[in-house]
Amino acid sequence: MIEIEGLTKRYGEKVAVNNLTFTVRPGIVTGFLGPNGAGKSTTMRMMLGLDRPTAGDVRIDGRHYDRLKDPLKYIGALLDAKALHGGRSAFNHLLCLAQSNGIPRQRVHEVLETVGLTSVARKKTKGFSLGMGQRLGIAGALLGDPRILMFDEPVNGLDPEGIHWIRTLMKSLAAQGRTVFVSSHLMSEMALTADHLIVIGQGRLLADTSMADFIEHNSRSYVRIRCPQRERLLDVLHEAGVTVVESGGGVLEVDGAKAEQVGELAAAHQLVLHELSPQQASLEEAFMRLTAESVEYHAHSGTSAPPQQWGDGWKRG
Fold first, then answer.
1. Are strands 243-248 and 14-24 parallel, antiparallel or unpaired?
2. Dist CA 279 CA 250 (whole Å)
3. C-beta separation of 270 from 276 below 8 A
4. I need a labelling partner for 130 at 20 to 30 A (CA). Which of 5, 24, 237, 262 fits?
């Protein structure tokens, strides 16, 4: 478990992390999201003792990182896949880490096999691609067989097979009861991997909730309907107190009612439906909505569009 309480980091006048409090729990994959400049990397560095907080506290299984004996046995992390000594082989890179934390040499062979790098174990890392570097970084995180794993952009440079592999690996680690904390900008991948989300913007906590609740509370859900007897269906829905929006092309959008309710109303009045489908925003759309006012750098397409009104951020413990 990772516990953060009142965590703050200032660089001169700039506040990079502002009074963050949350807990990363075992048994699930927790996603860590935020726009560029939100303070994610700074937060993760403070978890590992690489940056000292201006205020607040971080505990790894109840202890500060610098009080952990052989820390790789408690927490494994991948923060920068390029943080390698180019003159060392993959095997020797991991062996140095292992020897510094009292980890048996045999474990190096095991993690190289796990990440698929056995065939290049004796090659120098300066010739590694970004994807190979990612795999080696993941091997380093797994080296001490820790109860806590932390990954920053773990799928960068990986091919589709590699992305599927790391997704399956993270889910498997969480299923074993480990704490898995992962930061990524790839929303589609995060939607397939994470069970819980921590979202920050401008250093502040915006959301601490399950994936399902995050999407539900930061997006519009509705039921899409197409019916050849559209006018009659509109009358039936209005009589039932159901809110309907006509979106063009003969499509109706129903808010505040489930697809089952709409289907039962149509059946009761012998109305034929050509389409009845629940619609929900993607994680990306929900994320964009919540963090719209927390983005530090805004790009513009050059085309004019009416401004969109977003709801306030929210937090659930």
1. unpaired
2. 17
3. no
4. 24
Q: Which two tokens stand for residue 45?
A: 């560095």
Enumerate residues 6+ apart whose C-beta is below 8 A from 64. 49, 57, 58
Tokens coding 249: 């092309």
- Per-residue pLDDT at 283: 79
Q: Which two tokens stand for residue 229?
A: 């007897």
- Per the CB < 8 A criterion, the answer to whether 149 and 75 are in contact is yes
Which token pair is 253?
């959008």
- Encoded tokens for 51: 């940056």
pTM, two decimals, is 0.77
Handedness of CA 66, 70, 72, 73 (dihedral sign): negative
Given this model, what pLDDT does residue 307 score? 40
pLDDT of residue 294: 60
> Which pLDDT score, from 0 to 100, does residue 6 have?
96
Return the axis-axis angle of helices 130-142 and 105-115, rounded to nearest 10°: 140
Q: What is the DSSP letter of 118?
A: G
Query: Are residues 200 and 222 in contact, defined by beta-carbon separation less than 8 angstroms?
Result: no
- Burial class (CB within 10 angstroms; exposed 0-12, middle 13-18, buried 19+) of 293: exposed
Burial of residue 10 (CB within 10 Å: 0-12, 13-18, 19+) is middle
The angle formed by the CA atoms of residues 24, 8 and 152, to the nearest 5 degrees, is: 45
CB 77 within 8 Å of CB 48: yes
Mean pLDDT by 10 residues, the chain (317 residues): 96 94 97 90 94 95 91 93 84 94 96 94 90 92 96 87 91 96 88 93 92 79 89 91 86 87 92 89 75 60 43 40
Question: Is the sign of the CA dihedral 76, 80, 86, 89 positive or negative?
Answer: positive
Helix ranges restricted to H, the chain: 40-47, 90-100, 105-115, 130-142, 160-175, 187-193, 211-217, 230-239, 259-268, 283-291
3-state secondary structure 265-309: HHHHCCCCCCEEEEECCCHHHHHHHHHHHHCCCCCCCCCCCCCCC
pLDDT value at residue 159: 86
